[in-house]
Amino acid sequence: MKLDDVADDLEEILLTEDAIHERIAELSREIEKDYAGERLLLVGVLKGAVMVMADLARELKLPINMDWMAVSSYGSGTQSSGVVRILKDLDSDLTGRRVLIVEDIIDSGLTLSWLLANLQSRGAASVDILALLRKPDAAKVDVPVRYVGFDIPNKFVVGYGLDYAERYRNLRGVGVLAPHVYA
Ligand code: XMP
Ligand code: MG
What we know:
There is one protein chain. The protein is globular. The chain has helices at about 15-35, 50-60, 110-120, 180, and strands spanning about 10-15, 40-45, 65-75, 85-90, 100-105, 125-135, 145-150, 155-160, 175. The chain has one domain (about 15-155): Rossmann fold (3-Layer(aba) Sandwich). β5, α3 (about 110-120) and β6 form a beta-alpha-beta unit. α1 packs across α2 (about 50-60). The longest helix has 18 residues, at about 15-35. It has about 180 residues and is of the alpha/beta class. Xanthosine-5'-monophosphate (XMP) binds near residues 73, 104 and 108. Magnesium ion binds near residues 45, 48 and 104. Keywords: Cytoplasm, Glycosyltransferase, Magnesium, Metal-binding, Nucleotide-binding, Purine salvage, Transferase. Belongs to the purine/pyrimidine phosphoribosyltransferase family. This is Hypoxanthine phosphoribosyltransferase.
C-alpha cells in the first residue's frame, strides 16, 4: 500500500519508498566492506523489522543467513520498560558468528540494549546493530548502533513494518500518524 492510499491518516510523509531503498543500498555497500569475505547472520526483530530485513537481505552482495527473534517489553503504557521477555528465540547457534541485529526503530534504546547484551552472551564473534530509524531519545541510553538509516523527529511513525495497533505495517513508506487516528 502507498502512503497516498492512507493520506488522511497521516500528518506528514517522512520517508518515501525510494528514499528508503536508496539509503538501504548505501548501508549495504558499507556492510559489504565491513564484512568482506565473511558470512553474516542477520537477526531480525519481529515484527517491525520484516520489511527492512527483506530489502537489506536482497540488496547485500554477501553470503548471509537470516534468523528471527520476537521480544516484548513489559511495562505500562507506550514507553518500553527495559524488562524484555523472549517470545520467540533464535534457531541458530551464535558461537563464533558475526551477527547483525536488524531493527526497524530505536526509540529509548532499552529494548536494543537488552537484546545486544543477550546476544553477546551467546559466544558470537561480534554483535552489531542496524536500525532503519532512530529517534532523539536514543541518545540517552548508550546503545552502539553501527548503522543508522535515518534520524527522525520524536513523533509516532508508521509504515514499512511499523504499526499502530497492528495497522499500517504494509505501507511502502514511513509517515507520522495523525492524532485523530489514536484520539
Ligand atoms: P525502545 O526500547 O527503543 O523501543 O524504546 C523500540 C520499540 O518501540 C516501538 N516504537 C515504535 N513503533 N512507531 C512504531 O510503530 C514509533 O514511532 C515507535 N517508536 C518506538 C517499536 O516496536 C520499537 O521496536
Ligand atoms: Mg520493533
